[in-house]
Amino acid sequence: MSKTIVIFGFHAIQAQLDSVPEGFVKVLTLDNRNDKRIGEINAQLAQLGIRVEKSNKQHLDKLTHNQTHQGIAAEILLPTLPNQDELITYVAKLDHAGLILILDSIQDPRNLGACLRSANAAGVDCVVINKDGSAPINALVHKTSAGALNQLKIFQVTNLARTIKALQKENVWVVGLDGSTKTSIYQIDLTTPTALIMGAEGKGLRKLTKQSCDQLALIPMQGNVESLNVSVATGVSLFEASRQRSI
What we know:
Structural class: alpha/beta
Oligomer: single chain
Number of helices: 10
Strand order of the largest sheet: 7-6-5-9-8-10
Distance between the termini: 46 Å
Number of strands: 10
Strand content: 15-25%
């Protein structure tokens, strides 16, 4: 049976409408809200035949755990994420130098969502997350990704080290971000088929993940800050790859 989550707020509902409208199970709107904005959303939902129910504020507050829902929430289906075999088949069929983001045990759903948002903005071909140790795809990830969750190819794997080896057999160069190395991300050629791996908050890459990489790189830092938030580091790294590929 497919898993469902509750999303809320106009932006999240519109992002779902624009990308995967067939994923709606039902939509709930505040019973006393009748302004233009809710009317426009209701018109889109009605045109697509999506079921809308009226609800009171107390029920919406409970459904969204008292977060700001703007008078609208929806239950949506989460598709089952494809696995390693499907990832390798997908990568093998790419007709250009692929860019892959691998997230190694990102545990904060806000960070995971922000990483997905950066991945979408930087034009990655796909994202890989590990099944155990990563934050689950939930409403907070959906909201933080600002709709990117619906636009990305996301694969979920059980053994990241094994997945890395499988990608390497497809001639993908695997670069892990690690602050203990001396090689700058700006010194590495990221125009060939590349997978960038970002480690968990605070801990960084796991030992076996790090050992499996072809190369390690760091983001040069100035000032007295020791490290960047993982979502910021992801954005910096991906946009460096994007910059190199646009030259």
